[in-house]
C-alpha cells in the first residue's frame, strides 16, 4: 500500500503515554503537597500543646513554692477530718428509721410490746406476742429479709398464761 505512513500511529501512542505520565505526576505532587500540609498542621498543634504544658508546669511550680508548710498541714488536717466525718456518717444508724422499717414489716397477728436499740453494739431487741408459733416464724422470716439485718437470733420464746406466744428477737445490724 503505497502512500501510507506507518510512523503516525506510533506518534499518537507516544502522545497518549505522555499525557498519562503527566496526569500521574500531577496527582503525585498533589498527594505530597497534602501530606506536607497535614504534617505541618500536626507539628504546629504539637508545638502549641507543648507550650501550654510548659505554662501549666510553671504555674504549678510557682504555686508549690508559694505554699508554706503551715498551709499544707492545715489542708491535710482538714482532709483527714473530712474523711473521718464521712466514714462516721456511714456507720451512724438512725434508730427512728429502723423503728419505721420494723413497724412496716410487722405481720398481722404479731404485737410488739418493746423496742430497744443499743448504738454501741448495733443491736435491736424486739419483744412481743403472737397468736401462734407459725406467726412468730413468719415474722422472723420477714425480718431476716430486711437488708439492714446482719444477724437475727431468738433468745427467748414461750407461751404465756393468755395462750399467746411471747418472743424476743435480737437483730444485729
Q: Your description of this structure?
A:
With 173 residues, this protein is an alpha+beta fold. The protein has two domains: 11-92; 95-172, 2-Layer Sandwich (Gyrase A, domain 2), CATH 3.30.1360.100. It is built from four helices and four strands, in the order αααββαββ. Strands 1-2-4-3 form a four-stranded antiparallel beta sheet. A hairpin with a 4-residue loop joins strand 1 and strand 2. The longest helix is centred in the N-terminal third of the chain and has 60 residues, at 7-66. The protein is elongated.
Q: What are the salient characteristics of this protein?
A:
single chain; 173 residues; alpha+beta; Gyrase A, domain 2; 2 domains; 4 strands; 61% helix; 20% strand; elongated
